[in-house]
Amino acid sequence: MSTASTPTSATEHLHPATTRTLAALIVGGAAAILDSTIVTIALDHVSTDLHSTPTTIQWVVTAYLLALVAAIPLSGWAQSTFGGKRSWMATLTIFVIFSVACACAWNDTSLIVFRALQGFGAGMIFPLMQTLAVQAIGKASTKVMATTIAAISVPLALGPVIGPVLGGIVLNAAGWRWLFLINVPLIGVGLVMAWRLIAPDAPRSPQSTRVDVIGLALLIPSLVCIVLGLSNVASDGGFGQADVLVPLAGGLALIGAFITWAVRRGVRAAVNISLLRLRSLAASSGTLFTAGATMFAGMFLLPLYWQQVRGDSILSAALVLVPQGVGALLARIVAGRLAARFGARALTIGAFLLTALATIPFAVADPDASGWWLGCALFVRGLGVGAVIMAPMMVAYADVEHEEMAHATMVTRIVQQIGASLGIAVVAVVLQNSAATDVTAGYQTAFWWLIGITAVALIPAIAFRRESLDDEASATKG
């Protein structure tokens, strides 16, 4: 029985089989999401224990990120070739094997290599989780789609909050190696649930799953180069360095070549970019690009603000950010109803505006500003950040056929990942250049830039149709 063979119809409730599928996906995917936020706080301890340098040990994070983005274009091919259930379980297995390997690393080089391979597994987990979820519900009502998107995005909302807190507790109690071993029981449960709860689906014919070698040879290096260049911006403090310009230029040239190739190859391309002719997917992709910049730039700035301006420890800074996670979780509960009532455009624009307004207190606050006031601002900001990706995620699949959903997912994941890297790079440059003489003033400037990025994010959201999401789901293609 195929996962897609019992999709939820356009009713108001999830089919029991769909609910079980979502539960298995959420448990399996939660480990990868936690892992992406839990390790950063341990870099100093890892560097000391492995006798490494800060520059070298930073590659533990960079290698993971590069491998993650490199894996995204392979997720659609893997699902078509091996089937969704097999691909999901294989990906979880890869992730947990190299999680254990990271815990057993004997020097910085081995840790970086294992971390890259772990990141490759994570890069497959995220798009597969998204694709299998939306394929499970089929052409569903707005309420069902909202429930599905909210469910699979709960770990994304809570990961940045729970990860640093859990990481700080484990780091203090047991050491950095246990940060990787946390994944083992969670993935173990996820694998058992996937085996029992996700229905198997047959792979497609060999002709339809033939790998686009040239497309992948162009796309994967292009994404790696772009993300590497933007990562170097954050560490070097500017766009003018050779280690920024060279990979960025190379990445842009390669992605231009891939677009040319993919247009000619059409549906047989590694990523079918012809789907961007669909207004729903194009508008959603543009919005997710700017949403990625807004969300991840804020995730970069806020913990540093509490540590460097307010003087909090890493664990205290993580605890202070809990209100934002609570707001984001609450937003995922109510966003579906708001989308159904007011439409994708109104919800997304409102979410971006709320995010921008709730960031202003940080742009004007001095070191003695009330922590309660800033905590309230974080809660409101969480409401905005939590809602901002809901409508784009729902709209993205409105006009996409079942067999095209994996390609739509890859498009949205790629643009969101690049947007995230760009957002972090911009605020990192602003922060390094403006905080040299006055740390507080530097963060205020960086937060104003974050507000500006959020305002720019409104532009693609305006492209959404005015109809409610139920109307959009039934609209004709193009």
From TrEMBL:
- The chain positions of domain Major facilitator superfamily (MFS) profile read 21-469
Q: What is its main location?
A: membrane
SUPFAM superfamilies, per this entry?
MFS general substrate transporter
Q: How does it sit in the membrane?
A: Multi-pass membrane protein
Q: Does the keyword Cell membrane apply?
A: yes
Q: Which PROSITE patterns match?
A: MFS (PS50850)
| Gene3D superfamilies in UniProt | MFS general substrate transporter like domains
Query: What does the UniProt keyword field contain?
Result: Cell membrane, Membrane, Transmembrane, Transmembrane helix, Transport
Membrane-spanning ranges? 21-43, 55-76, 88-106, 112-132, 144-166, 178-199, 211-232, 244-263, 283-302, 314-334, 346-365, 371-398, 410-431, 446-464
Q: Where in the cell is it found?
A: Cell membrane
Q: Lipid biosynthesis as a keyword?
A: no
Task: Name the InterPro entries on file.
Answer: EmrB-like, MFS, MFS_dom, MFS_trans_sf
Per its UniProt record, what NCBIfam families does this chain match? efflux_EmrB
State the name under which the record lists this protein: DHA2 family efflux MFS transporter permease subunit
Q: Which organism is it from?
A: Paramicrobacterium chengjingii
